[in-house]
Every structure is written in structure tokens, then in C-alpha cells.
Amino acid sequence: MNSLILAANAQDPTLQTFENDVWWIVLIKLLGVFVILLLLTLFTINYERKVVARMAVRPGPNQVGPKGWLQSLTDGVKLPFKEEIIPKTADKVVYFIAPVISATVAFTAFSVIPFGGVVSMFGHQTALQLTDVPVSVLVLLACSSMAVYGVVLAGWASGSTYPLLGGLRSSAQMISYEVAMGLSIVAVFMTAGTMSTSQIVAAQAHGNEVEILGWTATTPSWYAVLLFPSFVIYCIAAVGETNRAPFDLPEAESELVGGFHTEYSSFKFALFFLAEYINMITVSAFATTLFLGGWRAPWPITWIWPGASSGWFALIWFFAKVLLLLFGFIWLRATLPRMRYDQFMRFGWKVLIPVNLVWILFLSYVKVANNELSATAKWLSIGGLVLVVLIVAVSWPQARKPRQRSIEEQLAARPPGSFPVPPMDLQVPPSPRARRAVAERTPATVGAESETKEV
Length: 455
Known about the structure:
Blueprint (H helix, E strand, L loop, with lengths): L1 H9 L4 H5 L3 H33 L15 H8 L13 H17 L9 E4 L2 E4 L8 H22 L3 H32 L4 H7 L5 E4 L2 E4 L4 H4 L1 H14 L11 H4 L9 H26 L7 H6 L9 H22 L5 H32 L2 H21 L11 H7 L18 H10 L1 H12 L1
Antiparallel strand pairs: 1-2, 3-4
């Protein structure tokens, strides 16, 4: 068993591994990342169309290529050759730069994602990763934050109302869900002790042994199990960060026509389309790296086949996990309706961020208790903290909904001669037939009001 662990650790790249790469190896890996992202984007577009069609019990794309799998390729070739229309009121410079920003940062984020361990490439030992730095996770967060600037600038530079509203919504979305995503990753920093993506994958290779009340137990190796609340919050925040349903408020076709890209066409619209799907792939690869063991095969496979994660086989497990997370994006789009704007903001600020902060404080206490307290005192104190949190959560006062007023009360509260206004809770106002029925039951009041108007 120890020999297998040493062999697995020998495959883990370190920061010094990337310093020894020759320049043409770096260029090959750079071109490989670019080609993989383009091919994976074309596949994901068709993948989404076919999965949604399957859920809706309809054929989906089935005409172009074998079983319709070349449909997204023809769409990608067609878009740049369509007529480009630029509004007269647009800020030409920013209008052009906005889609470039979105596409550029989407490609840049993949530079620190590890695809596998150390392999032999044309006689040189190199890692299946373009580069790595001690703060790689912060590079990914910075790229995801910059992607929203492309959306905001596109909405402002279009010189139109609907794109502007989409850009404003996106700025609020960035503030709300970028904070939640960043806090969910803090738990990974605390557990792994590093911000390097390759070292975070190495930290999930094997579980750690902990002593619980005198007996030894092995913790799960994947942080998706060990840090399950952080994983759930990250997945929710990732959906909001990529503007996908049910959090696609910057677009919101039913309200804003097309949102921030309403005034875009031809190649510039293709860049936004490309950036959206690459961002989906990026956050899925990021979740795979931080929470799902990265490029390593899952436990039953490694137990049966010890060399499953070695060499180029690592690409199989990495992309299998990414496609599984992409299926989650598609499943949400085919299942859930779009959230209302106030529900969206309330969920981010009042649910995700407070739960994340409580979870981080709990993890901090556990790390301190492991070093300072005995086993019995540690677990008793942790159980007491969990009990206190549960009591507070159960006894927390719930917001009371206002009593639903009857039709008579709504008509009586309306000033004489005013027009009916839809209520703030988006309920349907009383119908004209119901108002006539109320008027027939209360003739004295209605007559008095009409006499007062005539005077």
C-alpha cells in the first residue's frame, strides 16, 4: 500500500515542475488548451440541446452530421458571416472591447487548471497543466470577476434601455454571488493548507487519519464529502456567476428581450456565446479540482486498477467529472423557472453568505480544537456548538405574511375615482365582474360616492 501511495505522489506536479518546461512544450500545451476549450464548447452546445430535447420528449438537432452532432459547428461558422448592426448611440470603443474581455478572461482562467499529473511529452517530463502559481485559486477568482465586466460594459455601451438594465442586474449579481463563491473556497484553503491548484488535487489523494474518542478513523479524500456545505454553496454560486437559469437575470428574454447582448450581432455575439459556455466549463473544472479530487479516478476504480490515474488516463476522469457537472447546469435549465429579482438578491445575501460564514467559523473552531483540546472535550464542544446552531435556526422568528384582504376591503381602501393598481406581491387584482358584484351588494356606499363626485 505504501508503494502505491509513493507512486501516486510521484505523479503529482510541483511548482518547480513548470519551471523546467522548454518553450515549445509550453506553446504545445497552450495550443492544446485552446483547442480543447473550442471543441468542448461545440460539444457542450449540442450536449445541452440533446439533453433538453430528451427531457422535453422531442427530437432535438438530428439533421446536420451524424445524428445532428455537427449542428453547433455549422452555427459557429455561420455567426461570423452574418450582417453586423451597430447602434448609432453606441460607444464604439467600449462596444467592441466588451465581448473581447468576456472571451479573453474565459480562456485565461483555464491556464491554472490541472488536467493530469506528470507525463512524458516528446521525451520531456511535463505536467498536464499550462502553469501553476502559489495563488492559482485567486487567479481563477479574478478571471471570473473580470468576466462580469464584459457584460456590464456591453450593457452600458449599447446605448439602449434593455441592455443597460441587463448590465445593472449583472453588477448586482457579481456583488452577491462572487462573495458567496469566494467564501465557499475559503474552507478548501483551510483544509488543504495551500492555494495552488495542483497541490489541492494532491491533498485529496488520500484521506487523513483522525482520532475520535480513542479510535482512529479515516476522513474522505474528496472535499465534496468532507466540506459538503461548501460544495453545495459553490455549485449554487457558480450557476449565478455564469448567468445560467434560474439565475439568468442579465439576459431574461421574457423581460429584457435579450438582456445585455440585445444590440450585438455577428462575430461579437458569437464571442459572448462562446464566453458563456467556456465559463460553464471553467467553473465545472474548478469544482472538479477543488472538491472532486481533480484528475484522479474515484475510489472504487483506484482500488481495482491502481494505475488508473497515472499518465494520460487522468484526462478520462477529469473530463468525465466536468461533463457530469455540465449535465447539472443543463438539468437546472430544463427544470427550474427563472427567479424573480428580489428573490434572487434575498437568497444570495440572506441565505448563502450567512450560512457560509457560520460554516467557516465552525471549521476554524474544529482546527483550533484539534490542536488545543483533548479528544473528548473537542467532540463535546463541537456537539454543543451544533446544538446551539440548531436551536437558533429553529427558534429564529419567521417573517409573517400580511393577511390577504378580501375584494370588499380592497375596493373600500381604494380612493374614489382612482384606477386599480396591481398589488406589490404580484397577485391578480379583482376582475370587473367581481367588482360589479360587490357594487350590487353595497348600493348605498357606491351611490353616496357617485353623488359626491357629481357635486
